[in-house]
Amino acid sequence: MVALGGGPQLIALDVDGTLLETGSAISARVVDAVRAAVAAGAHVVVTTGRTVLTTRPVLAELGLIDGHAICSNGAVHIDVARDEPVAVQTFDPGPAVQALRALFPEMIFAVEKVGVGTWATGLSPGEFSIGEYLLVDDGALSSEPTPRLNGWWPTGSQEEMLRLLDQLHVPETSWVHGEFGPWLTLSRRGVTKGWALERLRAALGIPHERTLAIGDGHNDREMLTWAGHSVAMGNAVDAIRDLADEVTADVADDGVAKVLERWYRA
Predict the structure, then answer these.
(1) What gap in Å lies between CA 149 and CA 168, rounded to an integer?
(2) What pTM was estimated for this model as a whole?
(3) Beta-carbon neighbour count of residue 3 at 10 Å?
(4) What backbone torsions phi and psi does residue 213 show, to the nearest 5 degrees?
């Protein structure tokens, strides 16, 4: 493999809507581009809202066998070679569940059990089938710290959810909403993809100007504003397209590969 001069040394790549269309395989062109970057010595960091369990198949598909991955929107840092979390940022979901239940009585909640699965108060669309999926009540759901609390409002719209969330105040937590439908994810305040990537960049001693991030969703905002060079996918939401340094092709047209191939080739 050959790296062209001046290529990024730390490359943060979102998964769904960026590396792949949810439910589909990563294209051969994108896999080749990622592997070329790794072979040239770049740190390619899968940086996703997915859990550890649902990130592992992506790492395998890309052929990543060492290095780092950031899961759960920055709350879980994986050592890829050891195949285990090395840092987990948790919070008490109880106050958030109580406050959200008051605003959205029908909301279905789910918390991540790192490396095990999910505890949830009901079934929601799009859940991955990897790992344990245990149905519990609000009390059990709130009984242990978690890196991530998801909420889905089955009877409402995203617009109405966002309006009601203006009334939400839960100290020491922050939230981000999904791109499609009435979804939101809560985490410990200040924990984002960008926060986790900055910790990793500093530990690796990589200059900020040699960092690259590519994403498409609202949970990529801090990652893109962190990066020395930020790229939004062509299919990204407008707010993400507007803040990125550039916009590449969409996920169905190998947008990630078209960026990486500027510097890395077989």
Answers:
(1) 15
(2) 0.93
(3) 17
(4) -135, 140
Per-residue pLDDT of 167-222, as tens digits, reads: 898 989 999 988 888 999 999 999 999 999 999 999 999 999 999 999 999 999 99
Residue tagged 């490359």 (tokens): 11
| 126 token code pair | 């799009």
